[in-house]
Amino acid sequence: MKFRPLHDRIVVKRIDAEQKTAGGIIIPDTAKEKPQQGEVIAVGPGARNEQGQIVPLDVQVGDTVLFGKWSGTEVKIDGEDLLIMKESDIMGVLEHTAAQKKAA
């Protein structure tokens, strides 16, 4: 199934949180919080302004974004847990430096 969000909605796939703390302590699943960052999977065409023109979104497919703990609506599409949220629910886009891209 293919899903296309409408207006200023965005489909985000959560990025799993680290399994260990910086000190090396393994975090059990029951103690983990839901990650508040994810990868943009799909974006809508944009919202309309007062003149009726479509204003494109600032985020693009592939961006890594930060969002609020309770942002969006959780859905399951093709067995994959995703979030659908408005662009206004996103706090910002994480920029990756060249060194981070090489490490990945």
UniProtKB/TrEMBL annotation:
SMART domains xref list: Cpn10 (SM00883)
Cellular component per GO, a single term: cytoplasm
GO MF, one example: unfolded protein binding
Annotated compartments: Cytoplasm
Keyword set, alphabetical order: Chaperone, Cytoplasm
A Pfam family: Cpn10
HAMAP family: CH10
NCBIfam families from the UniProt entry: PRK00364.1-2 (NF001527), PRK00364.1-5 (NF001529), PRK00364.2-2 (NF001531), PRK00364.2-4 (NF001533), PRK00364.2-5 (NF001534)
Subunit structure comment from the entry: Heptamer of 7 subunits arranged in a ring. Interacts with the chaperonin GroEL.
Family: Belongs to the GroES chaperonin family.
Entry-linked PANTHER family: 10 KDA HEAT SHOCK PROTEIN, CO-CHAPERONIN GROES
Function: Together with the chaperonin GroEL, plays an essential role in assisting protein folding. The GroEL-GroES system forms a nano-cage that allows encapsulation of the non-native substrate proteins and provides a physical environment optimized to promote and accelerate protein folding. GroES binds to the apical surface of the GroEL ring, thereby capping the opening of the GroEL channel.
Name of the protein in question: Co-chaperonin GroES
Source lineage: Bacteria, Pseudomonadati, Pseudomonadota, Alphaproteobacteria, Hyphomicrobiales
Gene this chain is encoded by: groES
